[in-house]
């Protein structure tokens, strides 16, 4: 298994772990939700550098699409906190359902969309 394949699998696992942590936070389970909230940072720690390195790794003729997706991901990082804040004004726990959409896409990227050439 190559290093890129390992990074891809690790990215998928960490994205799914983060989705699970968001579900736990959204359930308002007292201490388990608090610990899950702390673990979100752990699972998030390697996502951006891994996404970036896999995203720029030899995209070939898809370079324009790859670079625009990376730019959109950064823009999403500016939009989603605003949306989470709007939802959190009504229910803080429910706001943690929104990032699950992002983590599902990241898991999909790690598992299927990224192909080692």
UniProtKB/TrEMBL annotation:
The keyword Transmembrane applies. Its main location: membrane. It is found in: Cell inner membrane. The chain crosses the membrane at residues 12-29, 35-54, 66-84, 96-114. It is a multi-pass membrane protein. SUPFAM superfamilies: MFS general substrate transporter. Keywords: Cell membrane, Membrane, Transmembrane, Transmembrane helix. This is Glucose/galactose MFS transporter. It comes from Hymenobacter aranciens. The lineage of its organism: Bacteria, Pseudomonadati, Bacteroidota, Cytophagia, Cytophagales.
């Amino acid at each position: 298994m190559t290093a890129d394949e390992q990074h891809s699998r690790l990215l998928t696992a960490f994205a799914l772990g983060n989705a699970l942590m968001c579900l736990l936070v959204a359930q308002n389970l007292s201490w388990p939700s608090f610990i899950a909230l702390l673990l979100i940072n752990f699972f998030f720690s390697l996502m951006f550098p891994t996404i970036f390195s896999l995203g720029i790794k030899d995209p070939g003729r898809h370079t324009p699409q790859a670079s625009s997706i990376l730019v959109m991901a950064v823009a999403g990082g500016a939009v989603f906190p605003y949306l989470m804040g709007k939802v959190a004004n009504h229910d803080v726990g429910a706001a943690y359902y929104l990032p699950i959409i992002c983590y599902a896409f990241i898991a999909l990227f790690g598992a299927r969309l990224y192909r080692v050439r």
